[in-house]
Structure formats: structure tokens, C-alpha cells
Amino acid sequence: MQYNLLKIYKMTILLVIVTFMLISCENESTKSIIAEDDYVFELIDEWNGSCEKKQIIDVNLGHSAEKFVEAAHCQCLGFRPDSNTINMYTEKLRNLDYVRRIDIIHTLCQLINREDYELIYSDPWKSQIELRLEDDVVKKNDRDIGAVMMFFFNCPNGVNCGMDWANTHAPGMDVPVKLYGFGDKQEGLYDPKSNAGFWYRELLDAQYAGLDFLLLNTYGPDLDEGGFEMLELALDAIDDPIKLALFDDTWTWGEPWFGEFWEEVPNLAQTELCAQKLYNAKWKPFFEKVPEQVWYLYNFRPLIYFYNAGKLQPRNRAAGVIRRMKQLFVQDFEVEPFVVVDGAFFDDPEMKFVADGRFNWFTLNLPGNRSRYTMNGTTIDHSMVRWDALGRSNPGAIASESDLIKKGPEILSEVLQNSQDADILVIATWNDLGEGTGINRNYDYYYHGEWLKPNYFMDIIRASQLDL
Predict the structure, then answer these.
(1) Contacts of 64 (CB under 8 A, 6+ apart)
(2) How confident is the model at residue 38 (pLDDT cuts 50, 70, 90)?
(3) Which of 163, 251, 372, 375 would you call most buried, defined as having the most Cβ atoms within 10 angstroms of its Cβ?
(4) Over the range 251-270, which residues count as b (16 or more CB within 10 Å of their CB) and which as e?
(5) Domains annotated on the chain, with CATH
């Protein structure tokens, strides 16, 4: 009997040891999976090339500030810099937020009055990793976060897609890449009008970032340029896609490039005519083209942002037009939209009785770098968290302190912290390359002398919004 008890005791101890080992192995396996899910981007080997003057200069050669200055000096001037030159420029890159890699290139070339050069922007990362939101991840607060998403550009080198137009670059702007392949296409361009892979990857990346919705920045003519057909293909390929809302960008009105319909600016003082034209130009076709199951709803109402671009006048007559457009929407879709209106249209004192929310687009001059308005119990925060417009506004220009360049994470982190009690936070923008306001996947974010990983800003939102 004593022997049997001893045997049982030993077997029990052995079972405990085996169980512990199995748990340890399982934990190691879990660690391996977690490591893969951390989405570690790796840089290519540091530049250590020969020193040659180049006609085509790669702005992205050299990871460290020192190596970049050396590579830039070689490409621009044809010889290596001395230590004083390296120290001078590296100090600027590390300590002055408004100094960019491209500014160093231009400065060095100007030393010898060089104008015979072109710029390219290579990807410093070994690969572009596919990002996805894990199935078991949940939100940790009630706030919804959205971002304004651009889709008006034509890559490569088309409208607003030249590499020198932007200071940071999305993969696929200049050549097709695997990341934007879709269907039977192994590679694709960062092009919303001809490549469903653009939409597929952007929708998944935004979902990974913890966004609840994207506001599609719609000018009007882009409704019929193929983008929405590509969007539908991408939506069909995603099991539970991120929700979508309308950002009505009124800039197109009065411009000569889109035909007579858009050249004639509606008059806000002519309430019925103006409402009919504005509604039929964008609101109605947008919600007919975007499947109802992916509409972003706030309190069961589809969200519309109505932006002022200075085209629609007189602004003090806007309330009646918005009211009528909401009525037309109810007639067609049997639900009233939740309309958030640009603060400029509150020149009309009646707008506070018509709009469901209010926002200011440019927020870098506002306290806390955000606009905050509460209407009818709903608080909407809106913030522009990055800014670098010189790539588009003044190609080739060297930035200065007065340019308000904001390259780092400080504003985004501040706004995420201070907006936790908001109902909705809208970030402007997800991917405007030319104005440098994007937080989407870019391969050459460079800040304080270091590359920031392509999903750097996405991960900040993700950590704030999701229980990881």
C-alpha cells in the first residue's frame, strides 16, 4: 500500500512537471506569435557607398543623421564633408523640427549654384509588412475616431502624385509594389482610380490603427472616375470593413478643369436651387455608391462633414440650404444624416439650429491644437496633427521656422489624451501627401535625426484606442 502511494506521488510530480513544460512551450509559441504581430519593420543596411557627385540624388540615403549628411554631400558636391560640416547639419536635423532632409540637399547644391539635379526617394525599409487588426482586439473607450481620407490623386506622376510634391511618400507612388497588389495583380500603384489594392490596403491599415471610420474627401468629379468601382471590389474582399462617411469638399465649385456643371458656383441665397444642385452633385450619388452596410452611423444616422473652401457664398445664408439638403436625404434614404458643418458657415446665425455638429479645419492655431464643439449633447473634436505643406505649395523651397512644420507625434499624442471624453474625434488627415498632414503608412517619416517606422503614427492611435 505504501509503495502504491509512493508510486502515485511520483507520477503526480511527473505529471506536474510535464504539464509545466507544456505550458512553457505554449507560452514560447505565444511569444513567437506576438513577436510576429508586433509588425517589426527593419531598415536596410546603412549606407556606406562610394563618394560620387550624382545628377539623380537620392534624398533617403543614410539612416543616421551623420550618414545622411555624408551621402548628401557626396551626391551634391562630389566629396566627403569635414567633421564641422557634419556636426552643423546633424545638429539642425536633430534639434530643429522644421529642417528636413530635402532642405539639406537643396542647401548643399546651392553652395555651388547647382540646378542640374533631380531627386528620388528610395524606401529605407527592407519590406512593407501587411498590417491587420487582430480578431480579438476590442476598444477601451467609447470615443469614435475617424480621419479624412484623400482619393483624388493619380499615381505615378499624375494629379498631386509627383514625388517632389510630397515630403513623405507612400509605397507605390512611383512604381508598382507588392503591398498594393490585388486579385490576379501581384503588384499595384498607390492609385485609387484604377487599383482596388489601394483601397484594400488603406482600409485594412486604418482598421489596424484603431480608426472607427474614414471620411472620404469627395470633390464631386471623382465620383465618376473609377474610384468607387475600385472601392467596391476592395470592400467585397474584406470580411468586416471599416465604416465610411462623406467629407463634402466644396473646393471644386468654380474651377475650370471639370466642366460647365462645376464651373457654375451655386448661390447659397437661392435656397432651393442651391440645395438641389449640391445634394445631387455629391450627397445622393455618394450614398448610392457606398454600400449601406459600411455607412458610418452616429446615433443611427449617416455622417456628413460639410467643408468650407471659400467657394460657396453668401455664407450667412447657408443654414436654409443645409436644412433642405437634409430633407432631400430623408426623402431618398429614409434617414436623416448627421451633418457636421465647417465653422465658417456659422456666419448664418440659424446654422446652430440646423447643424448637428461643428468643426474648424485648421487647428494648429487653436488652444490644444483642436477644435471642440458640443451641440445637442454631442461633443466633436477635430484636429490637424501634422503639417508640412511646402512639398506642394512651394516645390524645392527650404523650410523656415515660420512654416509651422509639425513632423513629430506630439500633437497627435496630446489630442488623443485630451479628447477621451469626446463622442467623436476626427483627424485631418489620414493620407494627404502634399500637405503633409497624413498619419497613414509612409516610408520616409524622418524626425530628430531618425527614421520613424511606416506605421509610427498608426501605432500611437492604436495604443490609445484599443485594448491590446
Answers:
(1) 46, 449, 450
(2) low
(3) 372
(4) ebbbeeeeeeebeebbebee
(5) 56-120 (no CATH), 138-467 (3.20.20.80)
